[in-house]
Amino acid sequence: MKHYLATSALLALISGAASAGGTGRSGQNISVLFETGNYAEISFGSVSPDVSGTALGSSSGDMSKRYPQLGASYKRDINDQFSFAIIYDQPYGADVAYPSGTGYIFQGSTAELNTHAVSGILRYKLDTGLSVHAGLRVQTLEAKASIPVLTYTANGERDTGVGYLVGVAYEKPEIALRVALTYFSKIKHEMDTTEVLAGSPTNSVTSTDTPQAVNLDFQTGIAEGTLLFGGVRWVDWSAFEIAPVAYKGATGDPLVSFKNDTFTYTIGVGRKLTENLSGSVAITYEKTHGDTVSNLGPTDGRLGVTLGLRYTMDNMVVSGGINYTRIGSATTVVNKSPLLTSSFTDNSSFGAGIKVGFRF
Fold this sequence. Notes:
The protein is mostly beta strands. It has helices spanning 7-14, 245-251; strands at 39-50, 53-55, 58-59, 67-77, 82-89, 93-97, 110-125, 130-147, 152-172, 177-184, 187-197, 200-210, 213-223, 226-235, 241-242, 256-257, 262-272, 277-286, 292-293, 302-313, 316-327, 330-334, 337-344, 347-359. The strands form 3 sheets. It has a 14-stranded antiparallel beta barrel with strand order 1-4-5-7-8-9-10-13-14-17-18-20-21-24. The two termini are 19 Å apart.
């Protein structure tokens, strides 16, 4: 059970990321850094959100597409004190597709936001149980949107940015205790952007910073074969916006922005079932703030449960899980007009994922 914190990476793949605060998806998990010995893993998750709303008597239909979530990690010891990890993840994303022919005011609107990140992290262990870690993150971001009711399209070309992370951890292996605190810097992007508004094209550069964040993760043994684990993640979403020149000039608002920062709370229990098999259950919660949100992300808060199994065989570890999340109700508005207000209620998402790891 002492390695159970690694399953939080799988939880992030399937825990209703489409409903997470802002456009967060991977949770920027670095738990592979704390694996014993040399280790590598790959993971795949699939999330199927069901998000719909109504405005002026018309239903939007399901506007959130199913999407995959991929991850890969490699960790290696250099000596007794130094180790390093290389992690690939997809930290942020959005897949919006309002069905056409519904009569809904934003029918036919689409939006995509795609990111890919590779992190290189170095860890140094002290003799006291403390350790420090730091590294660099290289990230790409691209985005596009189409809003027929505004006769508007935008295409932001892929851009690469660099950020950093730094953290500290404390471990007490005899009781399976680990507490890790990690800060992730913002990453600046400058996307070459082509907009077309009412038939008039505009070429410009859209500046955006993916937000800074802090992860606090913990685990501890609470009984023989039983582990308590969880964490808190803060993301500075109130400082994030995507504001192409033509769109903001016409509406007075960014294309995407968020009024509140997000705190995500996770708590779970893992239990050893046999010598090779263990199971877990975890609850994830984000507060519903009640403010109006963007039609390209019409969610506000969430409450989800994740069930997982983990099987160990020689040097291979296979983890799998499923998640169900209730998505918080939200109200959207465009250009501060009460006539363009929509209500999104009774929404949910379902996720499933698998992770395969090898020790060598």
